[in-house]
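Progress note, sequence design subtask.
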C-alpha cells in the first residue's frame, strides 16, 4: 500500500469506521476490502477521470479492476498509460478478447477481485472522494443489514458541467412535508432518528449518521444509477445472469437484491453521473424534476423481469438462504409482469408463492380457461381456494 493510501485510512472520519479502527488497535479485526470494478467500452475520453476518482478515495482498503470490453478507440492503451502515471498497486487493468457487454465485464471483474463488498462503476461516471467510505459505513451500521446500499448522484454533461444536484427518481426524505413515512410513495425509515432530531442534529456526526432503510416488500427500483450502488459479493455471484445479456446490469442486480433484503439509502449525492449522448441511457435530457428516457427502456426492463424470475426459480435452493416469505413475495411481484399460468405449471415454487399446494388448485385459480368453469364453486370453499 502506498503512502497516500495509508494516510487516507488513518484520516477516515466516519464515526462508524472510527469505532472499528479503535477496536482494531487491541484486536485482530480489519476494515473490509472493497472491490471497485470499472467497466469500459470506447470511453477513452472519460475513463481516466473514473480511475482517478477511485485512486483518491478517503477509504483506502480497496482494489480496482478496470475491465476494457474490447474497445476500438484506444481505451486500453489510455488506461495502461494512466495506471503507469498513478503508480498505485491497488489498480490493474484487463481486456476482454471480444465484446461481452456490461454483465460479462462485471463477471470478469468479480473473477479477478476478492473484496466482500463490490462497486460497479461505469467508465464515464465519477465517484466523490468519500463514496466508498460512506457506503462501507452504511453496511457496517449496527441497526440494519442489507445486501445493497445506494446513494444519490449529481448529473454532469460531457464536459463535466454540473446540470443537476440529484437524480429525480432517487428515493430521499420528503423535504416539503418532512415526513419519513412518505417518500415518493415508498416508506423510507430513518435508522438514526435521534441524530436528526436531537441536540446533535447540526453536528458533523449527525450528518454521517444520516441513513435510511427501504423495506424489501416495496419492490422496484429506488436508487440512482448503477455507479451509486455497493453490493455484497456473495449476492452478485449468486445472481449472475446469462452472458447473452449486455446492458442494464444495475436494474437487474438491484431489483433482485432489494426484493430479497431491502436497501440501505444514503440520502446525498456521492457520484457524478455523466450525460453525454454516447450510450443508450445517457441520451436523456435533464428537464428538471425528471429526465427524458429512451422508448426502449420498457422493453429492456420487461426482458430483465423474465430473466430475474427464471433465475430465482431455477436456483431456488441458493436464493432460499434469504427468508422464504421475501423470496415468494419477489416471485409474485415479478410474475405480475409475466404469464402466471405458464410459470405455475412449470415451477412448484410459483404455486407455493401463491398458496396453492397442487397443480389442480393452481389451475382452478389461474388457468385462463379452467378458472371460468363451475368446478371452483363446487370445491373452492372446502379446499380453501381463493377467489
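Output:
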Amino acid at each position: 500500500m502506498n503512502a497516500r493510501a495509508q494516510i487516507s485510512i488513518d484520516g477516515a472520519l466516519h464515526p462508524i469506521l472510527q469505532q472499528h479502527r479503535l477496536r482494531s488497535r487491541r484486536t485482530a479485526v480489519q476494515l473490509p476490502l472493497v472491490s471497485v470494478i470499472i467497466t469500459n467500452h470506447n470511453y477513452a475520453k472519460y475513463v481516466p477521470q473514473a480511475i482517478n476518482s477511485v485512486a483518491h478515495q478517503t477509504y483506502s482498503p480497496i482494489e480496482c479492476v478496470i475491465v476494457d470490453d474490447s474497445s476500438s478507440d484506444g481505451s486500453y492503451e489510455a488506461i495502461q498509460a494512466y495506471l503507469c502515471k498513478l503508480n498505485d498497486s491497488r489498480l490493474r487493468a484487463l481486456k476482454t478478447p471480444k465484446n461481452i457487454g456490461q454483465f460479462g465485464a462485471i463477471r470478469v471483474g468479480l473473477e479477478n477481485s476478492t473484496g466482500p463488498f463490490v462497486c460497479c462503476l461505469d467508465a464515464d461516471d465519477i465517484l466523490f472522494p468519500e463514496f466508498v467510505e460512506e457506503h462501507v459505513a452504511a453496511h457496517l451500521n449496527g441497526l440494519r443489514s442489507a445486501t445493497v446500499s445506494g446513494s444519490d448522484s449529481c448529473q454532469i454533461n460531457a464536459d463535466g458541467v454540473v446540470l443537476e444536484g440529484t437524480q429525480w427518481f432517487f428515493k430521499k426524505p420528503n423535504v416539503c412535508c418532512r415526513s419519513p413515512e412518505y417518500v415518493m410513495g415508498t416508506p423510507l425509515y430513518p435508522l438514526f432518528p435521534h441524530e436528526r432530531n436531537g441536540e446533535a442534529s447540526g453536528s458533523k456526526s449527525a450528518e454521517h449518521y444520516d441513513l435510511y432503510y427501504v423495506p424489501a416488500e416495496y419492490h422496484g427500483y429506488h436508487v440512482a444509477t448503477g455507479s451509486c450502488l455497493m453490493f455484497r459479493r456473495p449476492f452478485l455471484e449468486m445472481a449472475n445472469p446469462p452472458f447473452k445479456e449486455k446492458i442494464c446490469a444495475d436494474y437487474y442486480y438491484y431489483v433482485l437484491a432489494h426484493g430479497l433484503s431491502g436497501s440501505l439509502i444514503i440520502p446525498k449525492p456521492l457520484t457524478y453521473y455523466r450525460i453525454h449522448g454516447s450510450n443508450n441511457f445517457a441520451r436523456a435530457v435533464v428537464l428538471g424534476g425528471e429526465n427524458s428516457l429512451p422508448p426502449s427502456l420498457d422493453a429492456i426492463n420487461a426482458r430483465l423481469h423474465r430473466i430475474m424470475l427464471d433465475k430465482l426459480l431455477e436456483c431456488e435452493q441458493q436464493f432460499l438462504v434469504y427468508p422464504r416469505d421475501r423470496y415468494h413475495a419477489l416471485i409474485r411481484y415479478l410474475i405480475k409482469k409475466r404469464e402466471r399460468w405458464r410459470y405455475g405449471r412449470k415451477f412448484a415454487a410459483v404455486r407455493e408463492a401463491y398458496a396453492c399446494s397442487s397443480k389442480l388448485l393452481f389451475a382452478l385459480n389461474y388457468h385462463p380457461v379452467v378458472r371460468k368453469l363451475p368446478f371452483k364453486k363446487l370445491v373452492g370453499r372446502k379446499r380453501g381456494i381463493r377467489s
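Residues 1-10, 195-208 have pLDDT under 50 and may be disordered. Work on this subtask will continue into the next period as scheduled.
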